[in-house]
Amino acid sequence: MDKEEETASLQAELTALRRHFHENPEQSWQETGTQQYIMAYLKKLGIPCVPSTRTGVIATIRGARSSDRILGIRADIDALPVTELGTPGYKSRNKGTMHACGHDAHIAILLGTAGLLAARKNGLKVTVRLIFQPAEEFISDSGAAYMKDDPLVLACDRLIALHIWSRIPAGRASLRYGPVMSAADTFDVFIKGKGGHGALPHQAIDPIVAGSQFVNAVQTIVSRETDPLLPAVISITSFQSGTTSNVIPDEAHLQGTARTFNNALRNAFPGMLERIAQGISAATRADFKVAYHFGPPPLINDDACVRTGRTACEKVFGRDHLIAWQPEMSGEDFAKYKNPKCMLLLGGGFQDEARRYPQHSPYFDIDERALVLGVRYFWEYLKAYEAELD
To answer: Which residues pair with 131 in a beta bridge?
Structure first.
């Protein structure tokens, strides 16, 4: 990895791979073309692989000297229902679908790692398992919920992953001890009122007024019921009701998300929402039904996994470029895996801060020079892990 010509060749291959996946994005549980491309690429490298979890792939690299210790490396492969508004030369060809969170880079980095490992297979002291996971973005039915129970995954002694992060400049990275990303739950609130004429509200039960009171009351959960030292967010993100100006509708439907790093608080959220809903129901005469959906739990990095990773990071990024990035309130279903694990945030931001659009933006893009650093991190992590086991 130190040779300039080898790095240039790898950079070109990674860029081509990333742009292929960026141009051909597929949403959660629809990644059939992505799955086929990954499997064909791995087979070309001589790496045995199998489909897993409908549209995922698991590959295993074992050399003549490899022990039964297994290091798993995971990449997510799905795109988002976002219409790309930027104008790169590799713009999405699938209208309404975009790799707006960097999963195209994750696939490219793991395939680049596969090529590096295949060329050095006979020198490996441990077995390496490459896990290409579908449907990370599908909060209520995510891929990790299923792939975590695949026997090939359960056999891994530890799992590592990275997430490219557009707000961290390329050339830097963060590998935290403890919390990295929050739990990411969602909820629906269904309100049943009594429709009527807009001029005769006393003859109706207005679900819009009831829903508005619910939205306001929910704000007090974080401001008045939660320890101010515990980060928490509850947001109402959708309010659907009514179709015209002179009719009080029968129903309203609200949607929202709840996030925290604290599992006790997370488990209390459904009861808090239900209590508020029933109180407003009694006050307004509208019927409330709250449906709470648990998504990924908080992503907490394992200390031992991080120690190995930080040894690798110093070789790849240098101590000065390994930064202490704050925990994020976004969620990540890598948290669902049962294995000891850790996730690195890999800087992918452009030097020009104006181009650092956040994840999920229709203008999202990355500095592709970060791709090689991702491969180098996985390689150095493997070598550090092997050294610990000697």
So the answer is: 58, 74
Q: What's the rounded Cα separation, in Å, for the pair 117 and 202? A: 72
Residue 166, token pair as written in the block? 């557009």
**Which tokens in the block code for residue 90?**
């590799």
The pTM is what?
0.93
Q: Identify the bridge partners of residue 259 per DSSP, sorted by sequence position.
A: 233
Structure tokens at 54: 């409908």
Residue with tokens 């959960």: 221
E-assigned strand segments in the chain: 49-52, 56-61, 70-76, 127-133, 158-169, 173-174, 178-181, 185-192, 196-197, 232-240, 247-248, 251-260, 287-293, 299-301, 341-349
Q: For 319, which DSSP code?
A: G
Apex 184 CA angle, 180 and 186, nearest 5:
170
φ, ψ at 17 (rounded to 5°): -65, -50
Burial of 293 (0-12, 13-18, 19+ CB in 10 A): middle
Q: Give the number of other Cβ atoms within 10 Å of residue 332's Cβ.
A: 23
How does residue 390 score in pLDDT terms, banded at 50, 70 and 90?
A: confident
- Tokens in use for 295? 């998504």
> Model confidence over 36-68: pLDDT tens digits?
999 999 999 999 999 999 999 999 999 999 999
CA distance to 30, 261, 277, 349, per residue, from 344 (Å): 27, 18, 39, 15
| Among 238, 269, 261, CA closest to 331 | 261
Q: How many CB atoms lie within 10 A of CB 363?
A: 15
pLDDT digits (tens, 9 = 90+) for 156-202: 999 999 999 999 999 999 999 999 999 999 999 999 999 999 999 99
